[in-house]
Amino acid sequence: MSIYNDYIQEIEDRKIQGLHPKPIDGAELLSEIITQIRNVNNFNRAESVNFFIYNTLPGTTGAASVKAAFLKEIISGETVVPEITPDFAFELLSHMKGGASIKVLLDIALTDNGDKAKKAAEVLKTQVFLYDADTERLKEAYHNGNEIAKEILESYARAEFFTSLPPVAEEIKVVTFIAGVGDISTDLLSPGNQAHSRSDRELHGKCMITPEAQEEIQALQAQHPDKSVMLVAEKGTMGVGSSRMSGVNNVALWTGKRSSPYVPFVNIAPIVGGTNGISPIFLTTVDVTGGIGIDLKNWVKKTDENGNVIRNEKDEPILEEVYSIETGTVLTINTRTKKLYNGDQELIDISKALTPQKMEFMKAGGSYAIVFGKKIQTFAARTLGIESPLVFAPAKEVSIEGQGLTAVEKIFNRNAVGLTPGKVLHAGSDVRVEVNIVGSQDTTGLMTAQELEAMAATVISPIVDGAYQSGCHTASVWDKKAQANIPKLMKFMNEFGVITARDPKGEYHAMTDVIHKVLNDITIDEWAIIIGGDSHTRMSKGVAFGADSGTVALALATGEASMPIPESVKVTFKGSMKEHMDFRDVVHATQLQMLQQFDGENVFQGRIIEVHIGTLLADQAFTFTDWTAEMKAKASICISQDDTLIQSLEIAKGRIQIMIDKGMDNHNQVLQGLINKANKRIEEIKTGIKPALMPDQNAKYYAEVVIDLDLINEPMIADPDVNNADVSKRYTHDTIRDLTFYGGDKKVDLSFVGSCMVHKDDLKIVSQMLKNVETKTGKVEFKAPLVVAAPTYNIIDELKAEGDWEYLQKYSGFEFSDALPKSTARTEYENIMYLERPGCNLCMGNQEKAAKGDTVMATSTRLFQGRVVEDRDGKKGESLLASTPVVVLSAILGRIPNIAEYKEAVEGINLTKFTPISTKQ
């Protein structure tokens, strides 16, 4: 049976699901299709022509290479296809976005002397995804006197690829669709349990919100064919949670417009809004697609005649509606006045959504085209020996004389590209920066690979110090979906130059360690900038930004990222921790005290949290920086002491060496290079040449928050508050309650110790608590299941060496097996302890889940609806987040403990402690 017939059978199978043919990315299938096109008598010829023109993915896919070569045959006259004239072949090449198509166009433009060369040149003038091999050909031809090459370079220098595009419309009509009340997580737009289908855009689009919502969106489109549907988070923030390109892709698929008539299911220009704005990571992803994200501010705090905020019986501010955005409301975005209107009524200034840079993204169909366009313009002007004409909006530069620098301002100034020598920039400045570390996780990695293919990238940028492709999100269950997707992903990334968790050759042991832990280890410089394909890319060394799969691809391909320098909020501490408290409680209390200090305003949202916890090693400090995703911060920076930083770097070196010993380093010796850099950094600190990063004393912050440790008397629990009468206050991570609130009688159905929020000491706490129970009662029994997943294999090895792992094994009723990994997700749990494979496990919710309607007590990061546990009829599932000792004790008791039970249980146990230090220099 031919591969084409297999494809036809797949099409029939997809029809049952209401899907169109899957876009073609393989060379073998397209080669067979081309063979059928050549045979004018072939029964499948007409269908094959259609597949070739309209259903083949561009960039550097195998299919794109075959397509470009066939189009070259048609242009040269070697092959005649009545349906595809040479002019149409040029048009198809113009939509293929780099890679083989650029090579073909350069072949024709630089070697043909006639009309074909001119036509190829005209197409090349519209292209921006050129890499070193392409630009070197142009440069060489120009220096050899080729007039066509000169003409192309002059066009690039003038940025005609951008200036020739149609302008952004002055008025954009939208019709609103309220996708939800309160914060809208990316789990609603792209559910974690459907992660396996993300690279199949049409199939994945079926999971956005609900089928009923999709029908309602289509009805609005039918009623308003001249308007775009704007998805809205009423009384909340749009796109909180994970950094999912797939979420924006789904919104664009249902509400955006096609990027090309010849590229299926790749849509751009989605429009989204939120009462409290757009999550920073999600907004970056909207920019990638040339969309618009609007901070609607349609609800505000109600005030009395004296300007005082009016409060309800819970002492919460009462909100009042400024203007309505109920579903079906027609609004107008005016890109000239930068205002939002309802008819003639001006509603709000939206200039932050329509900055000059964002307008360029909209005009170009996304931010990638601008990033690559600027690079190609600079190259062309340098080659021609001229100054680049000012075409693009000048980067905003904010430089305040006499004002010191925050930590992030220092990092951005050091890593800035093209900065005027001697110029010092502050928050608000637009900066292009070099990226040091890049991470790709396994449920978005296939999309990152697609983005790399689409931008015609074939090898990692030499600027990047190190990059890692994880296998943690598919670690729990090695099912058919994982087996189909993950090996293909690992092979692509390994060949691209990325260190991979799984060896495509099968020579080293699969490492399913949680990506954030690995990135935290391979970050060997606190001055580093890290980009990772997950919202919890928030290292405790350097400044790390969770990003969509496209931004990750851009960082891998170019070694750069572009963004404004964010404002910072300084967080310091006073007082001392109570003996019975764990550092996780400090993390939760930080969120609570911040909200109390600023009258409910989240000053962290969209900003850098500069946290001064320098006495904690990187592993422990990561518990704080990791949680800043739940605080809605853009990123965080941990300010560390010299001696603490040296200890953290030594630990990191040891763990990187383990990766080398396993055989994970590549031919570029990336991992060894990281150890060498760590050694250099340690020497700099020890000798005083370059001490640990510190902000200037006269740095300016958006706000300063001082956390009083003396006020933290009980374990602090983040509660999804699933039954709050105000729907907008559910699932927010902002409801932090002390242990006593629950009265010692709230039933717990399952406990989970795992995720990136825990470290080795948390697993030691589990071991110590169970030993204590056995000493007191003679046995260990659980009244609720306890699932334990160490975040990394390194931690298990260290626990084995220190004697704790054998106790965990002793008390467990199930232990994972690398030789026989689970092939199906667990659906029922017994009242035992499960030692699961290192990885994300329940925290991700794409493989394992608690039973519907369960009350889960977990150390993980997310409490969104349906993430760890789904609802059932008559009972909402809820995931409460707490410290490891609270979680373990809840499993032993089958309920949330009271404070007396808790204190007794942790007596004599080494909880994670933190002692504040003076921030004065």
Topology:
Elements: H1 3-16, H2 27-38, H3 45-54, H4 62-76, H5 86-94, H6 100-111, H7 115-124, H8 132-143, H9 147-157, H10 160-163, E1 171-181, E2 184-185, H11 186-189, H12 201-205, H13 211-223, E3 228-234, E4 238-240, H14 245-255, E5 257-258, E6 267-268, E7 271-274, H15 280-288, E8 292-295, E9 299-301, E10 319-321, E11 330-334, E12 339-342, E13 345-349, H16 356-364, H17 367-384, H18 407-415, E14 430-434, E15 437-440, H19 445-454, E16 466-469, H20 480-496, E17 499-500, H21 515-522, E18 529-532, E19 543-546, H22 549-558, E20 560-564, E21 568-574, H23 583-597, E22 608-611, H24 618-627, E23 635-638, H25 642-662, H26 670-687, E24 703-708, E25 716-718, E26 736-738, E27 750-753, H27 760-777, E28 786-789, H28 793-802, H29 805-811, E29 812-815, E30 833-836, E31 855-858, E32 878-881, H30 884-893, H31 899-906
Parallel strand pairs: 1-3, 2-4, 3-7, 7-8, 15-16, 15-18, 16-17, 18-19, 21-22, 21-24, 22-23, 27-28, 27-31, 28-30, 29-30, 31-32
Antiparallel strand pairs: 1-11, 5-6, 9-10, 11-12, 12-13, 14-20, 25-26
